[in-house]
Amino acid sequence: MALRWGIVSVGLISSDFTTVLRTLPRSEHQVVAVAARDLSRAEEFARKHDIPKAYGSYEELAKDLNVEVAYIGTQHPQHKPTVLLCLAAGKAVLCEKPMGVNAAEVREMVAEARSRGLFLMEAIWTRFFPAVEALRSVLAQGTLGDLRVIRAEFGKNLTNVPRSIDWAQAGGGLLDLGIYCLQFISMVFGGQKPEKISAVGRHYETGVDDTVSVLLQYPGGVHGSFTCSITAPLSNMVSVSGTKGLAQILSPCWCPTELVVKGEHKEFPLPPAPDKEFNFTNGMGMIYEAKHVRECLQKGLKESPVIPLAESELLADILDEVRKAIGITFPQDKH
Ligand SMILES: NC(=O)C1=CN([C@@H]2O[C@H](COP(=O)(O)OP(=O)(O)OC[C@H]3O[C@@H](n4cnc5c(N)ncnc54)[C@H](OP(=O)(O)O)[C@@H]3O)[C@@H](O)[C@H]2O)C=CC1
Ligand SMILES: O=C(O)[C@H](O)[C@H](O)[C@H](O)CO
């Protein structure tokens, strides 16, 4: 039975995700509706992606009984209201990262999903790439020995991307790019709560975070660190070091296809996407998370075992702590 998707908002990532869904067998995935704040833009998107139903409001899509799962592709601050709207309408929800602007928002969404017995997942698509699955396997086998340190970086000049420098839209690097680094560190250290968090950072002129470095101490004398930036290019790699060797996820680490383990280079090419256009790097890699969502729903799961809701809450808690340490607040923090 095909999983019937509703796409919430018609922005850049929504276009990429919809393009990916339409490469999948129609017997497994169908995009049955799309909604935008403006009907004409929703209709244009529907024409581009051959979607049967277009709505001029998210509310109308939420009421569409043909929609089983909603994909939330709005900007950060609109994630919470649209997730809550779709949950209230009985939809399963896949919400783009970061699921919330802060931990309070994430906890509100998680509580609502749990109280309604509905599936909710944060679209940390990185975790579903074969290269990252291979890294998890390497770690599980003890190939690197006893872990000591993990280091991650994600930086690129985004000062020309309006949402990235827009304080009202919770811009900056931490929520947009840093979350990718942090989720690697948390994944490697088993979703444990760090014992100590420290951070230094620079503010961008609009009040968002510009470049931030974070140090996380975990139980057992191990630690992780990351740097994210919206103004400076960084290595965009991840390295995991243990007593028996080093593993590296090569750039682009947030959507990787290359893993190096103790000097051995392994490639995990994306599925072919002939004549498909994407707004973001390695967009075809969203196929993995889309397939995972369907697998979860087929099993009757209410959350992903790969990016559990408790992990989304933990990531948000840590990002809150980091923002507090460097003095970054957003309008959404007051609610
Ligand atoms: N997984 C990945 O690889 C990526 C994930 N993302 C995530 O996806 C989300 C969207 O990013 P992106 O597609 O670049 O965003 P866009 O700038 O394309 O905006 C997405 C949608 O947000 C709505 N929107 C835009 N501005 C406002 C505003 N000021 N107030 C209210 N709503 C607004 C619009 O919805 P409408 O269409 O209804 O008008 C718009 O289409 C982000 O949270 C980001 O973190 C982004 C890039 C890559
Ligand atoms: O999730 C992402 O990949 C980021 O939002 C984008 O890559 C970043 O905003 C640059 O476009």
From TrEMBL:
<dbReference type="GO" id="GO:0000166">
    <property type="term" value="F:nucleotide binding"/>
</dbReference>
<comment type="subunit">
    <text>Homodimer.</text>
</comment>
<dbReference type="GO" id="GO:0047837">
    <property type="term" value="F:D-xylose 1-dehydrogenase (NADP+) activity"/>
</dbReference>
<dbReference type="InterPro" id="IPR050984">
    <property type="entry name" value="Gfo/Idh/MocA_domain"/>
</dbReference>
<dbReference type="InterPro" id="IPR055170">
    <property type="entry name" value="GFO_IDH_MocA-like_dom"/>
</dbReference>
<dbReference type="Pfam" id="PF01408">
    <property type="entry name" value="GFO_IDH_MocA"/>
</dbReference>
<dbReference type="InterPro" id="IPR000683">
    <property type="entry name" value="Gfo/Idh/MocA-like_OxRdtase_N"/>
</dbReference>
<keyword id="KW-0560">Oxidoreductase</keyword>
<feature type="domain" description="GFO/IDH/MocA-like oxidoreductase">
    <location>
        <begin position="133"/>
        <end position="246"/>
    </location>
</feature>
<dbReference type="GO" id="GO:0042843">
    <property type="term" value="P:D-xylose catabolic process"/>
</dbReference>
<protein>
    <recommendedName>
        <fullName>Trans-1,2-dihydrobenzene-1,2-diol dehydrogenase</fullName>
        <ecNumber>1.1.1.179</ecNumber>
        <ecNumber>1.3.1.20</ecNumber>
    </recommendedName>
</protein>
<dbReference type="Pfam" id="PF22725">
    <property type="entry name" value="GFO_IDH_MocA_C3"/>
</dbReference>
<feature type="domain" description="Gfo/Idh/MocA-like oxidoreductase N-terminal">
    <location>
        <begin position="3"/>
        <end position="121"/>
    </location>
</feature>
<dbReference type="InterPro" id="IPR036291">
    <property type="entry name" value="NAD(P)-bd_dom_sf"/>
</dbReference>
<keyword id="KW-0521">NADP</keyword>
<dbReference type="GO" id="GO:0047115">
    <property type="term" value="F:trans-1,2-dihydrobenzene-1,2-diol dehydrogenase activity"/>
</dbReference>
<comment type="similarity">
    <text>Belongs to the Gfo/Idh/MocA family.</text>
</comment>
